[in-house]
Design a protein that fits this description.
Low-confidence stretches of chain B: 1-8, 10-22
Structural class of chain A: mainly alpha
Oligomer: heterodimer
Helix content of chain B: 40-55%
Shape of chain B: globular
CATH superfamily of the largest domain in chain B: Periplasmic binding protein-like II
Distance between the termini of chain A: 46 Å
Radius of gyration of chain A: 24 Å
Number of helices of chain B: 20
Number of helices of chain A: 13
Distance between the termini of chain B: 35 Å
CATH class of the largest domain in chain B: Alpha Beta
Mean pLDDT of chain B: 88
Chain lengths: 289, 436
Amino acid sequence: MFPNKILPYLLVAPQLAITLAFFYWPAGQALYQSMLRQDPFGLKSKFVWFANFRKVLADPAYLNSLKVTVVFSLSTAIVAMGVALLLAVMAEKVVRGRGLYRTLLIWPYAVAPAIAGMLWLFLFNPSIGSLAYLLRSLGIAWDPLLNGTQAMILLVSAAAWKQISYNFLFFVAGLQAVPKTLIEAAAIDGAGETKRFWTIVFPLLAPTTFFLLVVNTVYALFDTFGIVHAVTGGGPGKSTETLVYKVYNDGFVNLILGDSAAQSVILMVIVIALTAIQFRYVERRVHYG
Amino acid sequence: MRLLGFAASVAATLTLLSTSSAFAVTQISWWHAMTGANAEVVDKISKDFNASQSEYQVVPVFKGTYPETLNAGIAAFRAGQAPDIIQVFDVGTGVMMAAEGAIMPVADVLTGAGMAFDKSQYLPGIVAYYSKPDGTMLSFPYNSSSPILYYNKDIFQKAGLDVNNPPKTWNEVWEDAKKIKASGAAACGYTTTWLTWIHLEAFAAWNDVSYGTNQNGLAGTDVELKFNAPIFVNHFQAIADLAKDGTFKYGGRTSEAKQVFLAGECGILTESSGGLGDIVKSGMNYGIGQLPYDSDAKGAPQNTTPGGASLWVFANKSEEEYKGVAAFFSYLSKTEVQEYLHQKSGYLPVTLAAYEATKKSGFYDKNPGRETPILQMMGKAPTENSKGVRLINLPQVRDIENEELEKMLAGQQTAQQALDNAVTRGNAAIQEAIGN
């Protein structure tokens, strides 16, 4: 009775409409913009095909920001996941007040990225920061305003700190799913604590770890704009200018819309590639227990 | 900031709703970037103007920081939803000027509404900066400031310096800074906000040396940067040398260094005259001096150039709206309005009459130092080098300068290398920008 050929399409239509309106349309716009050379007000524009891409890819500042992004994302993901795993394993051992520990460790996730950035900025501000004062009295010449490496360390700490709680939550859940019987059996067989962790717990945590790896990489790549903006603004020099920050800076501060759009298209390609690689190759090797 | 913006837009909407039904008044939208005390000035001026007549209603809307406001205006124009008036900071002047089809020159707005427009009423240094090479005034100077020198009198006392005699030349600044550091009166001697504005753009004008060709961009958009000349190199090498042992302290690219000075960490600061409010509020025992000049420069000190922002009018508006804008601008030029603006916000008055009236009222006797930025700007008739710097992509060029100077301060390159690199990269960026 029902027009069966059309109904499925009708049911999918809202989803399709949303995808078209919020993904394909803007993405198409970005692609079109990236082939234009335009003044900020859009009064004059010229279609230049791939000239913007050629220019961006030949720009040493862009290659630098690519390098900065790789260093930043990897460090952030590793630090955030490493610390979270350590905390989760340790919190698991606590017998009394376990709930309290967990709650306290989850709190930082509620802090907005820009606020997190400001907090770290205040703590480590070379002039007024209390922790900066401590570092200086320890004989460390702390000046992230001029020292690029220190600025990067500050940024990674702020970004990772923000993400630790989230990772912690998932690791705690993952740890609870590890069958106690396996661990006890290993203990009876004489396996030490470290051995038990690396041969039983860690492999069984692999699905969680993989999931978090994806989430953390995406977070470090795209969600850290607020932190970069608040803490370093891309400086000193260009030592903390990530790809996303450069898109903003070129497009919204310097008003070079064509370059900025070309960079967003490149970013889009990177995301698509990353997702494909992660799901095609990495996920296959993950052991789902 | 966000919250403030939200509150401002709610307030604006409410005013809109409450009055538009009663009269057929013409709405004039005004997007601005003022916060704190300066935002109160914007609201008060608008309210007073609205109360003074019944035909037009100015609706001020806060749009975030200066760059955010400019971007909001550009995006709105592209979407065909531009406001009538937008406040654009000095650095964005070149961007607006290049957009001829998007803006309506203020001079045309005023004469089009049948109002006589007498340029000689305004402070010449300010008007020159916001005019086309042929003299047509393009935007209305709203808030203008000028860099000056602040010093902490308590620190001067402790270091054994004369508290009534601030340094006049850069060499004196370096000497005093070294004494402050050596005597232990403060952790650092000298710091500055806006390295690019104060030490490149204002430095060039004040010492009457060229920042770039084509009158620093005022005569045309094709500019070749010239700030790697020996006088600049010597100046920045001196700063780089002082930075090594912390006698000079870098605070950041914009006005962060003000906090360093307010915290009592440095004895001397160069900052915009618009920053005075915070320093007064801190209760510090401060003194004000003129912006230092380079004793090697012939004819220095020349005059400083205006920073701050001006009001631009968008194109393609109705005649009624332009009439309203013209009425508002002539209200803004009134002596008592300018006097209020100047005394309350610390920005410069834009008309000579307001300056004279403030002087007569004894305001400067009670507030010594408040006249300094005006005297600096009016001291001498501007030369080719001292009308200001206008580049089609000044924000980008400033970024480049900051990046190279930061590398210099970190000890990775000399002043000569830093300025050479900045000039090369800046020139390439300018060519790219005008090549559109």
